[in-house]
Design brief:
The protein is an alpha/beta fold. Helix content is 33%, strand content 14%. The chain has one domain (3-251).
Length: 261
């Protein structure tokens, strides 16, 4: 399919290009060397990819600090600059549509933006396996997790996925302030805590075999990540989620090895 169609998956109408060019340049980037500053794309990305007439490009007021929009904007810039024109699907974070697509096979790049909001409790998506576990079970060509807390890693994995054939699946952790009940400024912090606690492991696998993972720099308890949602959990939920994180750390080899920095 043609690339601009991928911007319509959320049902938003396009913006005019004149509005895009009025973007005020910002000198300080949120993550150095990426296409984004704060929750917006850089003016340089506008000029490099002027066809991206979409609310994903221009900031919107509906949900400040939205992790999905931040991730989608960066993905959009990478895809556009690479002139990617292959088949692409955006999968629902419930994971319900993943098995049929993975079973069907073919040559398609699949993306999923995960707010951890499915079902109203943290862990209902990733802990239940769903998209990521289905991808590993079907031993698709490539599956990887990424996070808005590390846009460089997201860009590298997306670039790798574009260069491969077969079914590729990229599962992107993108916390939503509206779901979490947190200030918009905490989006990146929450995403980082999810990875550093082991609750959301950052890894990649090819044909069902894990080929690499990102080591945890400063291991944090899962309660630091759960934060404001602790009040919504039952007394038995927190230990179970900590156990999930601990098992992820072992399964995906997330702790530094002796001699690693």
């Amino acid at each position: 399919m043609s690339f601009p169609l991928s911007f319509n998956v959320l049902g938003w109408p396009p913006l005019d290009e004149a509005a895009m060019t009025r973007q005020t340049p910002v000198q300080k980037f949120y993550q150095k060397g990426t296409f984004t500053f704060g929750n917006r794309l850089s003016p340089e990305a506008f000029h490099a990819a002027p066809a991206m007439a979409s609310p994903l490009v221009k900031g919107h007021e509906a949900c400040p600090g939205c992790g999905i929009v931040l991730a989608a904007r960066h993905v959009a810039a990478v895809l556009q600059l690479a002139k990617f024109d292959g088949a692409m699907r955006i999968l629902d974070q419930s994971g319900e549509d993943a098995p049929k697509i993975f079973e069907r096979g073919g040559d398609v790049l699949c993306l999923c933006y995960d707010t951890e909001g499915a079902g109203g409790k943290p862990g209902n998506l990733f802990a239940a396996g769903k998209g990521v576990q289905f991808a590993r079970l079907h031993a698709i060509a490539y599956v990887a997790t990424a996070t808005v807390a590390d846009l460089h890693d997201l860009e590298n994995k997306l670039t790798k996925a574009m260069g491969l054939g077969g079914v590729r699946y990229l599962h992107i952790h993108a916390p939503c302030p509206a779901v979490w009940g947190t200030p918009p400024r905490d989006t990146i912090r929450l995403a980082r805590l999810a990875a550093e606690s082991g609750f959301f492991p950052i890894f990649e696998a090819e044909n069902g075999v894990v080929t690499g993972s990102r080591r945890i720099r400063h291991r944090m308890p899962v309660t630091d990540y759960l934060g404001p949602r602790l009040a919504k959990l039952g007394p038995d939920d927190t230990p179970k989620l900590q156990d999930l994180a601990d098992r992820n750390i072992i399964e995906f080899d997330l702790l530094p090895h002796p001699g690693e920095h």
